[in-house]
C-alpha cells in the first residue's frame, strides 16, 4: 500500500496529485455547538428524535372548528358560539364539542375536539351581548357555552385537517433528517434547530502545521535589518489563510533557521500535533536539502519534485512515526502527512492551490468549489520554456465589448506584488513554447469570486493618482513609469496610461489617445530638513560633491530632470553626458516616487529627485526646480467602458483630491 | 431625504430593495490582526512604507560577481577567486573588488561591489589547494584574497543586475499597495505580510440583532412542552448563520413573547447596540401588529409589506433614535435600521436572501456573490396565485442525459424540511398563473455552490434504507410512503422509488421499472415492554378495547396491515370495514416508521404498527405479524446515471447494512 519513493525524478502533475491524495489527512469527528456549525460538514447522519411540529398546529389565524359543523357554510353561513381562545405557546383551555368554535392563532395547539381551522378572513365575530339572542345561526349552540356570549359567523366550509399541520407532518421522530457529508448552510442549521439539536457531530478540520524556514525571516510587525538581508515572512500568513479557506485549521510555527537539529525538532513536534505538515519559505538549495534530509531520516519521502512550473521543488511524504525507515504501514501512519512548498510566495500558493487544498477539502468533507474559468485572448505574446508544463500567472482586462484580454504579470522570482496583480493562471502544456498575441486561452481564476479589475491603468506613480484610484471600484494600476504607460498604451493593453512630464504623442504612437484630464505637480530636489548643504538647484549636483538619488529611466520625473540638465549643459556649452556623469548618483535609480526622498531621510543621500508634496509629507527640505503635468490618457478603444467614463467624471472635479497635496494644482 | 411611509400598500419588490438599500447600515472601520483578516475588506488604502526587498537581493544560488568580469565567459570560462560566502539572513562579510567572486545563496544581500549573480549551475568550484596555482583562469586574481584558496570557474557571462532583485523592485515605499474596498484573500494577506503589516484597517462587520418573537419559542437543546404548543426557535439560528454568511456579525437576543413592553425594551436595546435589527418568528397577526406598533411609536416605518410570495408581512424602517415622530433626518439616523422578516423559516430566509443580505454585504464592503442559476424544465405542473410575484422553492434532479428537471418542494406553511429539500427558487412573475410540465424555467440557486443531489429517491421510510443512503454522496430522499414513491416513479420524477409490501406493478404503471434489489423486514404490533396487555395479534385490536396508532395510507406498512385485517375479515366472514372500524385508532395515522412505536413508548397507545427493529431500538415489546419486502425500483430512464449504478452496486452487497437491524433479512 505504501507509495514508493521517487528520487529526483520530476513527477507528472497527475501523479503528484494522486500521491498527495493518498496521504491520510483525515482528522476524525468532533461535536460543535450549533452556533459554530456554519460551513462544517456532518460526520454522521442526523435522524429526527422528535416530531415537528410536536402537536397538531394551527397553520393560520382563525377559528378552530369541527369540519362537519361548517358544511354548507359557503352558501349559508353558520354561526357558532366561541368557547375560548388559544394562542401560540399556551395549553388550550377548552375542548370543542359539536357546534362550537374557538378562536385560534397561527402556531397554537389545536384544542381537543377540533379538526380544522377557518381562516379569520372568512369569518365575522359578532358582538356577544347584542347578537347573543338574535344571531341567525343555522347551527348555533346554547349561548351559555360561549365565552361572554361570543359568537362567530363562519362563511366557508373546511375539510378535516384544513389549515392544520398535523404532528410530525414536517418531519417525524425516526426519520432521516440529514446525511453524513452534508455541508451546513443556514438552511440545514434551520432544520437542526427545528429538531432541537444544539450540538452537531462534524468532520474535524485537519490541523495543518506551517513551518517557514530561513534565517532571514522576520514576522510582520517586527522591524527588518535590511543590511542583514532580513525580509518579512510572507508564506506563513498567506498559506495559513489559504489553509483556512480550504477548511483546515492552520497552526503557524515559529520559523526555523538553517539548523538541522532545530528543524528536525520543529518538524517532529508539528507532526505529533497536526495531520499535515507544510514547510515553505526556503528558497535556497541548502535549506531545501536540509528539510529533505529530515524527512528522509524521520519519515518517508514519496515524491521529490513535480514537472510543473512553478513547483519543481515540491516534496511529498510522511513525517514522524516511530521509524521512517520501516516499510510497515502502521508505523508510517503514525506520523503526519508532509508537503514541502516552494519558497516563493506565488509558487507556494500555486502549488498549495493545485495539490494541497483539494486534499484538505477532502479531509474536511468539503466539496470542490465550482471551478471558475474565463476564456480570453492573449494581449501580448509570451514565451514559455518547452518541456515543462507551466501555470502562467496572468491578469485580466476587459475591452469595451466585454472581451477579456489576458496578460502575463510575473515580475520575476519572488515578487509578492505578482500575488495581487494576477487574477488566475493559464495552464500551458509542456509541448508549447509560445503563446501568441491574439491566441485564445482559458484562465483558471484564483477563486470563482475573482472578477477582472474594472479599470486597468499603467504609468507613473503619483500621490494624487492614488487618491483618484481610491474613488474607483476595484481598479488595478501597474506603476511602470510614464514610459511604461506610453508603451503599453501604444500596444493597446490598458484602459488608461498616466504620463508625467513632456512627451511627443506622435513619436510615442499614442496620438489617438484621449486626454481625460490631469493636474500639475511641483518637482525638484528633496534635501534634509533645513537644507543643511544649502543646495540651490541641479547645478549644485553637478558642481559640488553631493550624493544624489535619481528615479528610473521609465519615470516622468527623471525625464523632466534630464531636460533641466540638458538645458544646463546647453547654457554652459558643454556635453550633456558630461553634466550627468559629474553627478554622483545620477544612475542610482530608485523605484517609486517617494524612494529618493526616503534615502535622504535615512541619511543615505544629500539630495533626491522628488515632489514638494513628498518632502512635506516626510518633513524634509525641498528645492523647487519646476512643475510638470500629469495626464491621464485613455485608450481610444475603451472610451465607452463604464470605468473609463467614471474616471473621466472624477477628473472633471479633480481639485477635490488635490486638497492638502503641496505643489499640486489643477491643470 | 427621509423615505415616506407607505402604509398597507404592498410595495413592488424593486422598491423594497431600494428602501432597504437606503437604510444606513455602515458600521465604520476597525483594525484587525493580519491573522484574522481573511475575508475582510480594506477600509482604506494601504501604501507600502518600506521597500520590498529592502536590499539588493540575490535571486538565485550561485556566485556574486561584477558583470564586467564575466564578459566572454560563454566562450572562454573565467576563473575567479572566491573571497567569501553570503547566506540569506546575514550581513555580507565581504566587499568585492574587480575580478573577485563571492558564493551567495538565494535571498542573500548582494555584497558591496557585486552587481550580478552567476547561477551555480553555470559554475564549477575548483579545489583551492589543488588548483590554487594551476587553474587556467584568464582573469584570476591573487590567491591571497581567496578564502582558503577557493576559486570558481564561471561558464557564462551575466549582465549587470542579472539574477538580482534590486531594492524596492517588488514594491517601493510610498507606492500604492492595495486600495480601499479590496477583499483580503491569501494573496493580499501575502502582500501585506511582505510589507510588514500586522494589523489592517478593515470595514467593520455590521452588527445585526436578531429578535425572535413568540411565546411558543424554546431554544434548541431545551425540552419542549408539546401540549403547550412549544416549538424550537428556528429563525434565530438560521438567520444568524445567514447574517454571518453575508458578512455581518449576528447578535441573537433572547426571544420575546407577546408583550408589548418587553418587546419595546428589547428592540430599543438592540437598536442601541446594533446597526440593523431583524425581527422574525411571529407568524400570528397579533404579534406582527405588536412589532408594527413598536416600530411606529419608537422609530419610523418606511414600508409595510412587499408584493412577493413569500414576503407579504415584511416590514422596513428605522428604530430607536430620540424621537421617531420627528421628521428630522438627524434624529432618525441615531437609531438602527430595522427589517421585520416573515415568521416561517423558508419565507424568512428567502426574504433575507433577497432583500437584506445585499444590504449587509454592501455595508461590509463585500461584492455580490456570482449569481448562480441553472436552466431546467418543470417536471410537473405548478399552479401559482396570479397577481403576486412568487419565489417558488424548487428541488432539482438530473436525468440520464444531464438535463435538469425542476419540481416544487413546498410542504406547506412553516415546514422546515422545505429548507433542505429545495435547491433554489424560480421567480414566477405576477401575471403567470401556471407553470406547465416541460416548461423551461431558470432556477436561482441558494448559493453558487449548490449542486443538484446526485440521487433523488421517493418512497417508504426504512432504517436499512437510511443506512444505504449514508453510503451515497449527497442523495436526496423524500419520505412520502410507498404509494407516494410509486406515483412519483410513474410520473418519471425520481431516480428510484422505494416500495414496501405488496403492489401490482402493472396497475401502478411502473412495470418497466428496474428492480435494483432490496431486503425484507419483519413487521407487527409494537407494544409496551413486557407486553402487559398480552396482545397476540391484530385480532386483539379488533376484539379488545386497545388503543392503537396506525401509519398513513401512503405507507407500505399500512398496506400489509390492511391486507392482514382483510384476511381476518374474510376468515370471520365479516365485512372488512366492520373490522377496521372496530379498531380504536385505526385512523390515527402517524407520519414516520417510528412514530407509532414512540406513541406506545410515551404511554399514548397500547399498540402501534411498526417494525421489530424499532421495538428493539426503543426497548419495547413486539408482536410479530409478518414480513414484507422492501424493493428499490429504478426509473427505467435513469439506469445509466452514475448514482443509480452506485446504488445498484451497494444493493448487491446489502447484507452489510442490515447488520444489527432485528428482523431484517437479505431478500
Q: How many structural domains can be distinguished in the coordinates of chain A?
A: 5
Shape of chain A: extended
Q: Can you identify the CATH class of the largest domain in chain A?
A: Alpha Beta
Q: Which chain pair shows the most residues in contact? A: A-B, 144 and 143 residues
Count the E strands of chain A.
37
List segments of chain A where confidence is low: pLDDT < 50 over at least 5 consecutive residues.
1-7, 129-143, 323-333
State the assembly state of the protein chains. Answer: homodimer
Termini gap of chain A: 73 Å
Total number of helices of chain A? 19
Rg over CA atoms of chain A: 37 Å
> What structural class should be given to the helix and strand makeup of chain A?
alpha/beta
Mean pLDDT of chain A: 89
Largest sheet composition of chain A: 9 strands, mixed
Fraction of residues in H or I helices of chain A = 25-40%
Describe the structure.
- Two copies of one chain form a homodimer.
- In chain A, helix 1 crosses helix 8 (345-364).
- In chain A, strands 29, 30, 31, 32, 33, 34, 35, 36 and 37 form a nine-stranded mixed beta sheet that branches. A six-stranded mixed beta sheet of chain A has the order 7-4-6-5-9-8.
- The relative contact order of chain A is 0.09.
- Chain A starts with 12 loop residues before the first helix and ends with a strand.
- With 667 residues, the first copy, chain A, is an alpha/beta fold.
- Chain A has five domains: 13-26 and 206-364, MoaB/Mog-like domain (Molybdenum Cofactor Biosythetic Enzyme, Chain A); 29-52 and 170-203, Molybdopterin biosynthesis moea protein, domain 2 (Alpha-Beta Complex); 57-165, Beta Complex (Molybdopterin biosynthesis moeA protein, domain 3); 373-452, MoeA, C-terminal, domain IV (Beta-clip); 459-666, D-Maltodextrin-Binding Protein, domain 2, CATH 3.40.190.290.
- Chain A is 26% helix and 27% strand.
- The first copy, chain A, has 19 helices and 37 strands.
- Chains A and B meet through strand 11, helix 3, strand 15, helix 4 and helix 9 of A and strand 11, helix 3, strand 15, helix 4 and helix 9 of B.
- Chains A, B: InterPro entries: MoaB/Mog-like_dom_sf (IPR036425), MoaB/Mog_dom (IPR001453), MoCF_biosynth_CS (IPR008284), MoeA-like (IPR038987), MoeA_C_domain_IV (IPR005111), MoeA_C_domain_IV_sf (IPR036688), MoeA_linker/N (IPR005110), MoeA_linker/N_sf (IPR036135).
Amino acid at each position: 500500500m505504501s507509495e514508493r519513493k521517487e528520487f529526483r525524478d520530476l513527477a507528472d502533475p497527475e501523479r503528484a496529485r494522486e500521491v498527495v491524495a493518498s496521504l491520510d489527512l483525515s482528522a476524525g469527528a468532533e461535536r460543535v455547538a450549533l452556533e459554530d456549525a456554519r460551513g462544517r460538514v456532518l460526520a454522521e447522519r442526523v435522524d429526527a428524535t422528535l416530531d415537528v411540529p410536536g402537536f397538531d398546529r394551527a397553520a393560520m389565524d382563525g377559528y378552530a372548528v369541527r369540519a362537519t359543523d361548517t358544511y354548507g357554510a359557503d352558501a349559508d353561513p353558520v354561526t357558532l358560539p366561541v368557547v375560548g381562545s388559544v394562542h401560540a405557546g399556551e395549553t388550550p383551555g377548552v375542548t370543542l364539542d359539536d357546534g362550537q368554535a374557538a378562536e385560534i392563532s397561527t402556531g397554537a395547539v389545536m384544542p381537543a375536539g377540533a379538526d380544522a381551522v377557518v381562516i379569520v378572513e372568512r369569518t365575522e365575530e359578532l358582538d356577544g351581548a347584542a347578537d347573543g339572542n338574535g344571531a341567525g345561526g343555522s347551527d348555533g349552540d346554547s349561548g351559555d357555552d360561549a365565552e361572554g356570549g361570543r359568537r362567530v359567523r363562519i362563511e366557508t366550509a373546511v375539510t378535516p385537517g384544513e389549515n392544520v399541520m398535523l404532528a410530525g407532518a414536517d418531519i417525524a421522530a425516526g426519520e432521516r433528517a440529514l446525511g453524513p457529508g452534508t455541508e451546513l448552510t443556514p438552511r440545514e442549521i434551520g432544520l437542526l434547530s427545528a429538531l432541537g439539536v444544539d450540538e452537531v457531530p462534524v468532520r474535524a478540520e485537519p490541523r495543518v502545521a506551517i513551518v517557514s524556514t530561513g534565517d532571514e525571516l522576520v514576522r510582520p510587525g517586527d522591524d527588518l535589518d535590511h543590511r542583514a538581508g532580513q525580509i518579512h515572512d510572507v508564506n506563513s500568513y498567506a498559506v495559513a489563510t489559504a489553509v483556512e479557506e480550504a477548511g483546515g485549521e492552520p497552526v503557524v510555527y515559529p520559523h526555523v533557521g538553517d539548523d538541522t537539529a532545530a528543524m528536525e525538532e520543529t518538524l517532529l513536534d508539528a507532526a505529533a500535533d497536526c495531520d499535515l505538515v507544510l514547510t515553505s519559505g526556503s528558497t535556497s538549495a541548502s535549506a531545501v536539502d536540509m528539510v529533505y534530509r529530515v524527512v528522509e531520516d524521520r519519515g518517508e519521502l514519496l515524491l521529490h519534485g513535480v514537472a510543473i512550473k512553478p513547483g519543481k521543488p515540491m516534496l511529498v511524504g510522511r513525517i514522524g512515526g516511530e521509524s521512517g525507515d520501516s516499510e510497515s504501514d502502521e508505523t508510517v501512519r503514525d506520523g503526519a502527512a508532509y508537503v514541502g512548498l516552494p519558497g516563493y510566495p506565488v509558487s507556494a500558493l500555486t502549488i498549495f492551490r493545485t495539490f494541497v487544498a483539494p486534499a484538505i477539502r477532502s479531509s474536511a468533507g468539503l466539496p470542490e468549489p465550482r471551478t471558475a474559468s474565463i476564456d480570453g485572448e492573449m494581449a501580448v505574446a509570451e514565451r514559455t520554456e518547452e518541456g515543462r508544463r507551466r501555470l502562467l500567472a496572468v491578469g485580466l482586462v476587459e475591452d469595451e465589448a466585454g472581451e477579456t484580454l489576458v496578460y502575463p504579470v510575473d515580475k520575476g522570482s519572488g515578487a509578492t506584488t505578482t500575488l495581487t496583480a494576477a487574477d488566475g493562471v493559464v495552464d500551458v502544456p509542456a509541448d508549447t513554447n509560445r503563446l501568441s498575441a491574439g491566441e485564445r486561452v482559458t484562465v483558471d481564476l484564483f477563486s470563482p469570486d475573482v472578477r477582472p479589475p474594472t479599470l486597468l491603468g499603467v504609468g507613473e506613480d503619483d500621490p494624487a493618482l492614488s487618491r483618484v484610484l481610491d474613488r474607483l471600484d476595484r481598479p488595478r494600476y501597474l506603476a511602470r513609469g510614464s514610459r511604461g504607460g506610453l508603451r503599453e498604451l501604444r500596444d493597446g493593453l490598458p484602459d488608461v496610461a498616466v504620463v508625467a512630464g513632456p512627451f511627443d504623442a506622435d513619436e510615442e504612437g499614442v496620438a489617438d489617445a484621449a486626454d481625460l484630464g490631469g493636474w500639475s505637480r511641483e518637482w525638484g530636489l528633496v534635501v534634509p530638513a533645513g537644507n543643511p548643504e544649502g543646495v540651490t538647484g541641479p547645478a549644485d549636483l553637478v558642481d559640488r560633491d553631493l550624493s544624489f538619488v535619481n528615479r528610473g529611466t521609465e519615470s516622468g520625473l527623471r525625464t523632466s530632470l534630464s531636460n533641466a540638465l540638458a538645458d544646463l549643459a546647453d547654457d554652459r556649452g558643454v556635453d550633456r553626458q558630461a553634466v550627468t556623469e559629474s553627478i554622483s548618483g545620477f544612475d542610482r535609480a530608485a523605484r517609486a516616487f517617494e524612494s529618493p526622498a526616503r534615502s535622504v531621510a535615512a541619511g543615505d543621500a544629500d539630495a533626491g529627485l522628488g515632489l514638494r508634496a513628498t518632502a512635506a509629507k516626510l518633513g524634509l527640505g525641498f528645492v523647487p526646480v519646476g512643475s510638470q503635468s500629469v495626464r491621464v490618457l485613455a485608450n481610444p478603444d475603451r472610451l465607452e467602458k463604464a470605468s473609463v467614463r467614471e474616471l473621466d467624471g472624477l477628473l472633471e472635479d479633480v481639485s477635490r483630491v488635490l486638497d492638502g497635496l503641496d505643489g499640486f494644482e489643477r491643470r
